[in-house]
């Protein structure tokens, strides 16, 4: 887990909503293994981080969005099938970032794919058990977006914004 806000925000800043990155109150990140167990780990990380930031009352909505973003990264952005956690010491390709400003919280998931995330349209098979992740992200957050990473970093970041106070 890292807490250096500028190091976390540097690769994310292009696609974030217009919030001054120098005013981040708190930030935290964690690398996630390329297996579906990572979703549970991301939820635990989110719960402990929000608790430390006195934002535990926002856990349900934020955890649902984090779960969907991590699941999407594992399902659509990691080459091959998600597997057991790696033991080779290599840096996992999926990373969760949480950033807290006075009135906003951003959760962002970095993955190795530059493919655009695509939300299913409402008229498509509503009974489908999968494919509704970005619809849930849009429903439970105050906004979301994505951008490809630039420079030496490859992949993209998908983020969701939560307003903590009425602006």
Automatic annotation (TrEMBL):
Pfam families the UniProt entry points to: HATPase_c_2
Keyword Transferase: yes
Keyword match Iron-sulfur: no
Example GO molecular function: protein serine/threonine kinase activity
Alphabetical keyword list: Kinase, Serine/threonine-protein kinase, Transferase
Name this polypeptide is given: Regulator
Record domain Histidine kinase/HSP90-like ATPase: where: 36-143
Provenance organism: Streptomyces laurentii
InterPro entries registered for this protein in UniProt: Anti-sigma-factor_SerPK (IPR050267), HATPase_C_sf (IPR036890), HATPase_dom (IPR003594)
Gene3D superfamilies: Histidine kinase-like ATPase, C-terminal domain
